[in-house]
Amino acid sequence: MNYHFIAIGGSAMHNLAIALQKQGHAISGSDDEIFDPSKSRLEKLGLLPENFGWFPEKITLELDAIVLGMHARIDNPELLRAQELGLKIFSYPEFLYEQTKNKKRVVIGGSHGKTTTTAMILHVLNSCGKTFDYMVGAQLDGFETMVEFNKESEYAIFEGDEYLTSPIDLRPKFHLYKPHIALITGVAWDHINVFPTFENYCEQFQIFADRIEHNGCLIYFEGDDQLLELSKKLRADIRAIPYHTPKHTINNNITSIEFNEEFVPLKVFGLHNLQNLKGAYYVCKEMGISDNEFYTSIQSFGGAAKRLQMLASNNKTTIFQDFAHSPSKLKATVSAVKEQYPQKNVISFMELHTFSSLNIEFLKEYKGSLDFADQAYIFYSKHAIELKMLEDIDPLLVKEAFKKEDLKVFTERDDLENEIHSLDLTNAIVLFLSSGNFSGINLKELANKLI
Predict the structure, then answer these.
(1) CATH 3.40.50.720 in the chain, residues?
(2) In CATH, which of 3.10.290.10, 3.40.50.300, 3.40.120.10, 3.40.50.720 is domain 2-87?
């Protein structure tokens, strides 16, 4: 088949392009900008466009289909040309469903933890020598790409994002997958630019549950009030499987989980990760993985990229990077680190980067989210606010929203870096928390310098 990718440089899109090329398909693509690691990976495989920009002349009747990325605008010249020619146009999730419509689909949704939970499931299946299709939103150890298809696989495991499908399809992505086995980790308001009220946001998870295949199952965290309500509204043919926080201990900064009246040591930590692990356990059980296989395999799981990822460490200081940006994720991450390292000074640097976090009306949702940090800093870029065409934010308003007395707020990258380098990091855990990059700071290089 001959596929053309409009917006090939996206993290998900370029992985799909690579996966299809590995299957022997002819791949072309365009984008107006491509950054590493996407750029280097595409270039290595001969998939990097010769020139950046949109070129409608690339769109011909020789193409079998278009794969349309969310980054493209509705008036994209290549998209308009494809529509004019009547070519088949797939969004990313549409394409995933089309490739797996004859398989058993497992979809992991939730406001937080879906990447980690999906990664745990993939790690266990891989450790057990299973063959499967998958899509996950982060690079994982032991996996070359973030998406892959196998002709002989029975199952397809997808991370189910609630954000929009494409510029011409405004449905949440996870509404398109129609799972046989579904898991929801929790519901906490996010994406205020798309879902203006919490009720509207919750409705998307109800729709997701309604689209579970006949005689399927929903695995859900029973400590979430919204999910408890949702579980009461399931169709009669859908099995509801609740899970909770498993029994665990923390000794010498190592978390262990109970199995067969013994405690199994883990590489990950924090209540949310333990809850994610329990959800992953029930998914794997539905797929025929034994308890012994699961708990043996999960011990070696080290996490997904940028999810409490250790950047550097010595005997005095440890530095982590985490994707946490919403209030619930932020609170979960900081509290997890403090619980794991109670004797350490926890220093958090959080970037307001998403549309929601930079929205004045949403800021109040962050109240108390940094309470477990011993020292807390917020950074946001005025440029990011301008790009999102939002109202300017006074640093005093940010401080007031978080309700943390000693919180410091920075809007200039240089000021932030000077502050970081001035700190005494003896006996400290440093957290960099963002879905962005702190206006271009190379966090890995910075961490190595600090250590």
Answers:
(1) 2-87
(2) 3.40.50.720
Please, are residues 121 and 157 in contact by the beta-carbon 8 Å criterion?
A: yes
Q: What is the per-residue pLDDT for 190?
A: 84
Contacts of 449 (CB under 8 A, 6+ apart): none
The tens digit of pLDDT for each residue in 269-279 reads 999 999 999 99
Cα 183 from chain centroid?
15
- What's the pLDDT score for residue 37? 86
**Closest by CA position to 222, among listed 298, 161, 162, 279:** 279
Maximal C-alpha separation, the chain: 65
- Residue ranges for the chain with pLDDT beneath 50: none
Q: Domain 95-298 class?
A: alpha beta
| Neighbour-count burial of 366, counting CB atoms closer than 10 A to its CB (0-12 exposed, 13-18 middle, 19+ buried) | buried
Quick one: pLDDT at residue 307? 81
This prediction has a pTM of 0.86
* Strands across the sheet containing 262-265: 248-251, 254-259, 262-265
Residue in the structure block whose two tokens are 């745990």 = 120
| Residue 395 to residue 408: CA distance in whole angstroms | 9
435: burial class by Cβ within 10 Å (0-12, 13-18, 19+)? middle
CATH code of the domain occupying 309-450: 3.90.190.20
